[in-house]
Amino acid sequence: MEVRTAVSPKDIKTYTTDRLREEFLIQNLFTADEIKMVYSHIDRIITGAATPVNKILGLSSGKELHCEYFLERRELGIINIGGTGTVMIDGKKYTVRFMEGLYAGMGSREISFTSEDRNDPAKFYFNSAPAHKSYPTVLIKREGKEEDGVVIIKEENKVELGSLEESNHRVICKYILPGQVKSCQLVMGMTSLKPGSVWNTMPCHTHDRRMEVYLYFGIPEDAFVMHYMGEPTETRHIVVRNEEAVISPSWSIHSGSGSRAYTFIWGMVGENQEFGDMDAVNNRDLR
């Protein structure tokens, strides 16, 4: 587990491109038969991925957390962006297909990941945050029948925004949030841009009470996303490739424009879970 410290907005004004990428960009998350993790001092979020191909991968706490097991004091949100796979939690099997999610509450002790087909391995992306209470573990699906231990994303949590004329026609699909999946502080979802649109979160905003991590995927090898961050009057950018993530502090904007349409997963932790708690930034005020 790599550990990264928090930074001041005053500091990044002096960062070179390499230093900016070193502090905020997360690369090489999806490595065959490994679990890769980055622990950020910014709200203590852990961003990681498990890519089982030939073996079962077990999630352990490591010396960085100084606890007996990974979710002793934490909660976990998972979204699969690869082939069908299985997550075992304390002996119970959850089959997680492409773009399906899973929430595991504090106190879940044994967690492991496997793929159904080694030629089309699962890619389990996850965010984890400190927790104070144990909530039920649930499988999260976009469609289907709701049953015990399975939550279907509600229609009001599938939101279409923007327009092709503004180059930001997109669909936001909310996975983990109040009223659908109970969690202590973790909120997660996915945004997919329609063909011809390239902007996400525009006009942009900050939310001083929550930080955010973006994972960009569905980007062809020769394409990229320009992720914009920094204070609204001191913006910076990071070039992001397929299946790379960016840590976004609460004081920073988090917006992007791609060389073509793409999809990204957003995960938020912090002071509250209010999706609409945003401080809007007027386009004319950006610098």
From TrEMBL:
GO terms for biological process: D-galacturonate catabolic process; D-glucuronate catabolic process; pectin catabolic process. It comes from the Bacteria. It catalyses: 5-dehydro-4-deoxy-D-glucuronate = 3-deoxy-D-glycero-2,5-hexodiulosonate. Its cofactor is Zn(2+). One of its GO terms (molecular function) is 4-deoxy-L-threo-5-hexosulose-uronate ketol-isomerase activity. Zn(2+) binds at H205, H207, E212, H254. It holds the Pfam family KduI. Binds 1 zinc ion per subunit. Pathway: Glycan metabolism; pectin degradation; 2-dehydro-3-deoxy-D-gluconate from pectin: step 4/5. Its EC number is 5.3.1.17. InterPro entries: KduI (IPR007045), KduI/IolB_isomerase (IPR021120), KduI_N (IPR027449), RmlC-like_jellyroll (IPR014710), RmlC_Cupin_sf (IPR011051). Keywords: Isomerase, Metal-binding, Zinc. Transmembrane segments: none annotated. HAMAP family: KduI. Belongs to the KduI family. Catalyzes the isomerization of 5-dehydro-4-deoxy-D-glucuronate to 3-deoxy-D-glycero-2,5-hexodiulosonate. This is 4-deoxy-L-threo-5-hexosulose-uronate ketol-isomerase. It comes from Anaerocolumna sedimenticola. The gene is kduI.
